[in-house]
Amino acid sequence: MSKRLLIVHHTPSPHCHEMFDAVVSGATDPDITGVEVLRRPALTVSPVEMLEADGYLLGSPVNLGYVSGALKHAFDQSYYQLLDATKGRPFGVWLHGNEGTEGAQRALAGITGGLGWEPVAQTVIVSGKPTKDDLESCWNLGATVAAQLME
């Protein structure tokens, strides 16, 4: 039985979308086997999809020093269903923002910490147009979290 990696993202800009594509590419690398990768926009992901996932990749722009309202909404609608049921699950984060990314990181640390999720990769933070190195970091993030789910 394969494990399920859920990518919950809000990618409203071309820069965010570039990062998302790199994360997906890493998570779906052919060398990673036994992992089903689901991609869901943050505004449409269901609590059941979040509950059934074995690991998570979370992507968001940083707006006014906070994660996007869309990603916050995904957690608002599922937090209590996930509480206790998803402790210890691996996750990783990528953020795109020009300033105030600390607030977004703090918010996600609070949410995921409250759920008991385990960070398995360093958060990728990009300002402006993603460079080749930034996109490589996104690819590595996707691959690292997906590889955590391999048996």
Number of domains: 1
Q: How many β-strand runs?
A: 7
CATH class assignment: Alpha Beta
Average pLDDT score:
96
CATH-derived topology = Rossmann fold
| CA(first)-CA(last) distance | 10 Å
Form type: globular
Helix/strand-derived class?
alpha/beta
Largest sheet: 7 strands, mixed
Rg: 14 Å
- Give unreliable regions as ranges: none
Structure description:
- Helices cover 42% and strands 25% of the residues.
- With 151 residues, the protein is an alpha/beta fold.
- It has a single domain (3-148), classed as Rossmann fold.
- Strands 1, 2, 3, 4, 5, 6 and 7 form a seven-stranded mixed sheet that branches.
- The longest helix is centred in the last third of the chain and has 17 residues, at 132-148.
- The relative contact order is 0.24.
- Residues 50-127 form the NADPH-dependent FMN reductase-like domain.
- One of its GO terms (molecular function) is oxidoreductase activity.
- This is Multimeric flavodoxin WrbA.
- InterPro entries: Flavoprotein-like_sf (IPR029039), FMN_Rdtase-like_dom (IPR005025).
Tags for this entry?
about 25% strand; 7 strands; alpha/beta; globular; 7-stranded mixed sheet; about 150 residues; Rossmann fold
List the SSEs and their pairings.
Layout: E1 3-9, H1 14-27, E2 35-41, H2 47-52, E3 55-63, E4 66-67, H3 69-76, H4 79-82, E5 90-96, H5 101-115, E6 118-119, E7 124-126, H6 132-148
Parallel strand pairs: 1-2, 1-3, 3-5, 5-6, 5-7
Antiparallel strand pairs: 3-4
Helix pairs in contact: 1-6
Task: Please sum up the structure shown.
The chain is α/β, with parallel strands linked by helices and 151 residues long. The protein has helices at 14-27, 47-52, 69-76, 79-82, 101-115, 132-148; strands at residues 3-9, 35-41, 55-63, 66-67, 90-96, 118-119, 124-126.
